[in-house]
Structures are given as structure tokens and as C-alpha cells.
Design brief:
267 residues, alpha/beta, Rossmann fold, seven-stranded mixed beta sheet, three-stranded antiparallel beta sheet, 12 helices
């Protein structure tokens, strides 16, 4: 018979699968205490299994559920992650969108703590200022606390050193208590909100670019297909979909991580 920790891990696995589509393996049970131990104590629970039972129970309070989702969702990211992807953005994607002369819409799905959408606005500000003026950026994530942090735009010294050079740090950040904050002029150009890719809800639409990078690998096959369907519906027929360097779509590849949405036959 499983012990209390084993039962708690099974509850977390079911909860995350149901709430966010994220698959947690049996051999990842070490994450129970590593990620939830401190949270359990902050909520004054006697132990981690007690917190898990409360957070996973029907009618659980929003703070408990939010804390569990936020802790068990992977937020590993950095600015300008995967250089070839961003080189394609700067050399081909943004110039093509600039030539259209029309308003542009970008959806950064599963934006985590905000490095991806902030990378977008930095590149626009530096190299495509006119395009930036007519570009709407939507950034979403399933974890509400992470979205709040992304909206605030404060990053530690370690975080800004991952992907940013000194020139960008000086140009786009202010020094604040706890690290560095993205300048308000850039923060105001992104609309952050909570959004669940595997739950019923309204998705963005008519997007020229849909980014969902390094997320699909955490879904099982059927859930992955469902999410891809949502991403494709959110993109314009002539739009682009960007995924992580280790992820692939059965669509026409346009470069590392870039796919055309126009192809009709796909899996």
C-alpha cells in the first residue's frame, strides 16, 4: 500500500493532468517535497500530503490551487532562448510583417515569467520600431502567480544574465530592489493574462505569430494534438507557429522552430 507521500504524489499527478494537461511521471515523485514542501509550510499545513489533499479537494480555495499549479509547472526559460529561432525572427519574420503595413498580432502562449514576450518587444524596439507601434502582443500562462510576476517584469541578476548582454540591460531595464525591472514603456506594450491551453475558454484569434515553445513536450499525444489544433485556429491562415527546438509539427518547416500554418494536411 502506498504511503502518504505516494498517495499525495498520485493526487498531484491527477490534478496536474486534469487542470493543465501536464504529465508528471512516477519517477518524478521527488518533486513533491522539493517543490511543495516550502509552500505547505507557508500555508501552515503540518506536512506536504496535508497541503496536497487540501489543494486537490473539490472546492479547494483558489490560493491553494494556484500555488500547486504554479509550483508544479515548469518555468525554465531565458531571454532570447535558442539563438537560431530569434535570428529567423529578426532576419525574415519581422521584415515580412513590416512589409504588410497592417496591424500585427502575436500570441506568446505559456509565456512563463515573461522572458519570451519581453524578448519580442526588445527586438521590435531595437530593430523594427515602426512595426512595434502596430503590434499587439498577448502573453498568457496557466499559472496565475507566474503571470503576475511576468507582468511586474522584475528579474534577478542571474535571470537577466541569461540571454541578455550589457547593452540590452542598460537600454531596457531599471535597477530596482531585488534585481532589474523592464522599463514601463516596454511592459505596457504586452497584455498579460491567465489562460489554460487544455481547458475550455476563449483563445486569441487572427494571430500572425503564435508561440508555444518548449511546452508540447509535457503533454501526452492526444492532449498535444488538441493543443496544436487550438494553436492553429488562433493563427491566421497565413500565420506562423513557433515551437521549441526539440519539438516538431507536421507542417511545412520554415527554419528552426518555425512552421507555416497554411498547410491543410497535418497530424
Amino acid at each position: 500500500m502506498p504511503d502518504a507521500a505516494g498517495l499525495a504524489w498520485a493526487m498531484v499527478q491527477r490534478f496536474m493532468q486534469d487542470e493543465s494537461g501536464v504529465t508528471l511521471r512516477d519517477d518524478q515523485s521527488y518533486l513533491l517535497e522539493a517543490r511543495l514542501g516550502g509552500i505547505s509550510r507557508s500555508f501552515s499545513f503540518p506536512d506536504t500530503p496535508a497541503f496536497v489533499r487540501a489543494a486537490c479537494a473539490p472546492g479547494a480555495t483558489a490560493p491553494h490551487r494556484r500555488a500547486l499549479i504554479d509550483a508544479m509547472t515548469t518555468h525554465e526559460t531565458l531571454f532570447f532562448r535558442d539563438a537560431p529561432f530569434w535570428e529567423r525572427m529578426e532576419q525574415t519574420v519581422f521584415p515580412s510583417l513590416s512589409a504588410t503595413g497592417r496591424p500585427i498580432r502575436i500570441w506568446s502562449a505559456a509565456c512563463s515569467s515573461g522572458q519570451e514576450p519581453y524578448s519580442l518587444v526588445m527586438m521590435l524596439e531595437e530593430s523594427f520600431p515602426e512595426l512595434g507601434k502596430r503590434t499587439e502582443i498577448l502573453a498568457t500562462d496557466v499559472a496565475a502567480d507566474t503571470v503576475d510576476r511576468a507582468r511586474n517584469g522584475v528579474f534577478t541578476t542571474l535571470e537577466v544574465n541569461r540571454g541578455l548582454n550589457a547593452r540590452r540591460m542598460v537600454r531596457h531595464f531599471d535597477s530596482v530592489a531585488g534585481g532589474f525591472q523592464v522599463k514601463a514603456t516596454l511592459r505596457d506594450r504586452i497584455r498579460f493574462s491567465v489562460h489554460n491551453l487544455v481547458a475550455p475558454g476563449l483563445d486569441p484569434s487572427d494571430c500572425d505569430i503564435v508561440l508555444c515553445r518548449n511546452v508540447l513536450i509535457y503533454f501526452e499525444d492526444e492532449r498535444r494534438r488538441q493543443v496544436i489544433t487550438r494553436l492553429r485556429r488562433a493563427a491566421r491562415p497565413d500565420g506562423l507557429i513557433g515551437v521549441g527546438s526539440t519539438e516538431t509539427l507536421s507542417l511545412r518547416s520554415l527554419g528552426p522552430g518555425w512552421y507555416a500554418n497554411a498547410e491543410k494536411e497535418w497530424r
